Amino acid sequence: MVDPDILSNEEREALNELLQVPKLAPLRALVVDDDADSRELLAEILLLQGIDTCTASNARAAFDLLMSDRSLGLLITDLRMAPASGLDLIRQVRDSERAALPIIIMSGDAGVKDAIEAMHLSVVDFLLKPIDPSRLLQLASRELGIGR
Fold it and tell me: Is the bond into 130 cis (omega within 30 degrees of 0)?
């Protein structure tokens, strides 16, 4: 009787290796706030829940990070920063190759006009400070595809 298996063990192993889906590193969040205490607190909240996070203190540094680091899958930015605001940063991102990046904006003193403009820029959500950690974690987990 003829062996119905036409592949050798070596060929089968090579085929299995080719079919293996590479394990991708989980996406990370970028927290941008010109207030160091707020920035570090938000990053710590995310890190404690297993969400890898990096930070930037201004819009320019944040944009540079987003352009150079493809593992960043979520932007969380403050609205009021100097010299460029969170809305300026979002506009710059939306005009770049990272236009589809999910973005959460936050502010302690936002007006209706700011919220409307943010929504026109297709942000995921507009969170008011003080930030509700459970809401932030829910949004970040969903946008990064992390099961909770």
Answer: yes
Alpha helices in the chain (DSSP H): 9-19, 36-48, 59-68, 86-94, 112-120, 133-144
Looking at CATH, the fold of the domain delimited by 28-143 is given as Rossmann fold (3.40.50)
Looking at residue 90, its amino acid is: I
**Collapsed DSSP state (helix, strand, coil) of residue 44:** helix
| Residues counted in the chain | 148
Which sequence spans correspond to the domains of the chain?
28-143
Q: Once rounded to an integer, what is the mean pLDDT over residues 70-91?
A: 95
- Dihedrals phi, psi of 32, to nearest 5 degrees: -120, 120
Whole-number Å distance between alpha carbons of 101 and 78: 16
Q: What gap in Å lies between CA 127 and CA 115, rounded to an integer?
A: 9
Check whether 51 has a pLDDT greater than 90.
Answer: yes
**What sign results for the dihedral spanned by CA atoms 78, 84, 90, 93?**
negative
